[in-house]
Amino acid sequence: xxxxxxxxxxxxxxxxxxxxxxxxxxxxxxxxxxxxxxxxxxxxxxxxxxxxxxxxxxxxxxxxxxxxxxxxxxxxxxxxxxxxxxxxxxxxxxxxxxxxxxxxxxxxxxxxxxxxxxxxxxxxxxxxxxxxxxxxxxxxxxxxxxxxxxxxxxxx
Length: 156
Fold this sequence. Notes:
alpha/beta
């Protein structure tokens, strides 16, 4: 093989490798699946969002229906206000509930939506009133240890 042909193949291999790394970086950074379609905005207040981050998925029945568009702290109510961008093709009733869930044991956190039975649907700018905050493992372990210590102190 000539030197120039070999250089061409090595160059193509390097370009393909860089392309594969870019795709992997987009997947890891939640940048894939960006929809250019229309969406509507919802907000919800949570007492504790755990490790929820902007661009985290919003799922209903395991299907990604939107993304977290922003998180801010409400100085008056002392809660986290999460802004969500939901694809317009998905409609949810007014009594929908939102929970912060975790994929697997130590996976990423996402918002899970469960539709209610109301006949009216949420519109852009509406607030989801029924929310459940993230479960913090450290807090659960602390409660477990405290209850075990209390049980041990009662036995005499």
